[in-house]
Amino acid sequence: MPTLSSGNVPPSVAGVDRDLDMSAHPAAIEARHLDFYYGEHQVLFDVSLTVPERSVTALIGPSGCGKSTFLRTLNRMNDLIEGSRCQGEILVEGQNIMEPAVDVVLLRKHVGMVFQKSTPFPKSIFDNVAYGPRVAGEKNRAVLADLVESCLRKAALWEEVKDRLTTSAMSLSGGQQQRLCIARTLATDPRIILMDEPASALDPASTDRIENLIGELCANYTIVIVTHNMQQASRVSHQTAFFYKGKLIESGPTMKIFTHPSEKKTEDYITGRFG
Amino acid sequence: MTIHFVREMEHLHRDILSMCSAVEELINDAVDGLKHRRSELAQEVSGRDREVDEWDIRIEEECLKILALYHPVANDLRRVAVVMKITAELERVADLAVSIAERSAGIALYGEFPMPARLAEMTREALSMLHDSIDAFVEQNAAAARKVCQRDEHVDNLNSQLIDEVVVMMKQRPDLVEPGLHLFSVIRHVERVADHATNIAEDVVYLVEGAIIRHPRLHRRSGASATGGA
After folding, report:
1. A236, B12, B142, B210: most buried, per Cβ within 10 A?
2. Does B81 contact A at CB distance below 8 Å?
């Protein structure tokens, strides 16, 4: 018999239940009072945000608002930028990743990243996916073959490339290259995946595949995605966080943010009145 | 936000106001015809109802166009959704105006048929609710809209009392069963006008606050429904 449970609400993309009760999910990431500086220039101001486990959180805001900087703090990619510094706490599965003793290589293994522009290595499709596990010491060919197939399947690419695994990854289309990069990220067995505008350079069909993939992956992974595309944010995410001038203005269930945001600034941005 | 979108929204607003005005005038005339037993009004009201039907389709097409082309969100989304819903309510009110005018014509055939005194109070209240709900929409006034919702119970009570009166009258005067049945329908139609006014008022609360206040006994989850979901 039909009920009012969320199970009757068609998801926007596969796997994303838009009415998901996120309070039932433990926190995968907790940023607390985060300040970030490029030299003397402060770009994040007292940002506190909780990302529930196995959900999709979209970071939105105009260019220069700090959303990509925030994303990169979550696996300390900003450490690579000279003169940058960060204050506050970021707990990833309970551990403060800001502590100096944290092994950033291990951190980035657990918190993978997919970039705006696909970045396949000039190697074969197989070797791209197997790269991470090999660096981590895996040499068994059979194990690697299973892992490559599994990751390509998870990235919804296997059927398209299974007969040409030894060909160069550079021969793939843009959308396929991006899914290959997602497969490569999955191969290091992350629990969290950060995505910085992963579909902004793709055509609508490839974008659709990436969005469906996000919907499927969030059953097992926590995903944080930066996007300039409001409709994409509303389609793929459970939670949306709006940044403006380095501050987190508002965060909450995506359905609420896109139907009745609490802050006027959020309303003005998502309705296109500025930005 | 493109200037085209702003223009489309302004155009939509003008059209829904025009429809509100046309429907209010229609139902007022239908009730006036009942009061003054103007049997000739039925045909005229029916003709004007077709104009309302045209508004109904035109506004729905405008809303669908805006949804398809501009993908509105937040306040804009709520406004388009509410305009679509209010349009449907208004179209039903116009249909009720036609039915009231037709029933009034039936009653008018019976000359001095005695109208219950409370009918005037009920029609006055229902029309006032409709007027106030439209005002609340125009002014985006959720408090005023909530007041309209609270008045529906009074109309429901008048409806029950009047129906009882009509039943007693028909038992006492079998020769008046036919006009009595016409009156019975009129009372039900007026009660429905108040229901539609209430629905419009509830939509206004959603427009302003993002909260769905229909069916308050249903437990609603936070986020999508209680605090803002469509």
Report:
1. A236
2. no
Closest Cα in chain B, distance from residue A5 (Å): 9
Rounded to whole angstroms, how far apart are CA atoms B175 and B169? Answer: 10
Tell me the per-residue pLDDT of A40-59, one tens digit each, with 9 for 90 and over.
Answer: 999 999 999 999 999 999 99
| Average pLDDT value for chain A | 90
Least CB–CB distance from A256: residue in B71, B77, B223: B223
Do B230 and A261 make contact, defined as CB atoms within 8 angstroms? no
CATH number of the domain where residue A94 is located:
3.40.50.300
CATH number for position B168: 1.20.58.220
Domain interval for residue B34? 3-209
Share of chain B above pLDDT 70, in %: 94
Pair A79, A16: CB distance under 8 Å:
no
β-sheet with A111-114: strand ranges across? A111-114, A192-196, A222-226, A56-60, A239-244, A247-253
Instruction: Read off the pLDDT of residues B137-157 as tens digits, 9 standing for 90 and up.
Output: 999 999 999 999 999 999 999
Range of the domain at A233: 26-120+190-270
One-letter amino acid for residue A256 of the chain: K
> Do the chains contact at A256 and B229, CB–CB below 8 Å?
yes
Look at residue A50 and tell me if it is in a domain. Answer: yes
Confidence of residue A16 (pLDDT cuts 50, 70, 90): low
B230 and chain A in contact, CB less than 8 A: yes
Residue A226 lies in a domain: yes
Mean per-residue pLDDT, A175-196: 95
- CA A97 distance to own-chain centroid: 18
Q: Look at residue A176 in the predicted model and tell me its pLDDT.
A: 95
Q: Is residue A258 part of a domain?
A: yes
B55: left (phi over 0), alpha (psi -120 to 50) or beta: alpha
Nearest CA of chain A to the CA of B143: how many Å? 18
Contacts of A267 in chain B (CB under 8 A): 74-75
Q: What is the distance in angstroms between the Cα of B51 and the nearest Cα belonging to chain A?
A: 33
* Arithmetic mean of pLDDT, A135-160: 94
ipTM > 0.85, yes or no: no
| Candidates B5, B75, B212, partner chain A, best to mutate (most A CBs within 10 A) | B75
pLDDT over 80 at A76, yes or no: yes
